[in-house]
Prior knowledge:
By secondary structure, this protein is an alpha+beta fold. The protein has a single domain (2-90), classed as Phosphorylase Kinase, domain 1 (2-Layer Sandwich), CATH 3.30.200. Helices cover 33% and strands 34% of the residues. The chain has four helices and five strands, in the order αβββαββαα. It has helices at residues 2-11, 51-61, 94-100, 106-115, and strands at 15-23, 26-33, 37-45, 72-78, 81-87. Strands 1-2-3-5-4 form a five-stranded antiparallel sheet, with helices on both faces. The longest helix is centred in the middle third of the chain and has 11 residues, at 51-61. The protein is globular and about 45 Å long. One of its GO terms (molecular function) is ATP binding. This is Protein kinase domain-containing protein. Keywords: ATP-binding, Nucleotide-binding. ATP binds at residue 42. Residues 14-116 form the Protein kinase domain.
Amino acid sequence: MEQERRRLLQEQGFQVLATLGKGAFGHVYQVQKEGLGIIAAKVMNEEEFDIREWRAGFQLTQDADNPFLLKYNSTQMFGIITVILMEFANIGNLDSIIEAKKDIPLPIIRVIMKQI
């Protein structure tokens, strides 16, 4: 299944740079495509995708003045697979930040707290 997800992204013109995460609701990849640059692509099965939840999230992220929200670019459906394209954040997930046990500058803490 992992190879199928990667192949689907490649067929859509994306270069898969890295796997960012795997969870109950799909896999997230760091991808690159001309015209879009480096972004994140979340690939999930159709039954795990809630269109109402996505629309609400998309609407919330369209506030261009809020630097604390990741922007959703689009969603595409390919048969039973859904791909959500979103802004790439290189900070990782909260668990990885906590496990690193490094001092985090206050401005970064503010950004993280704003997203929680």
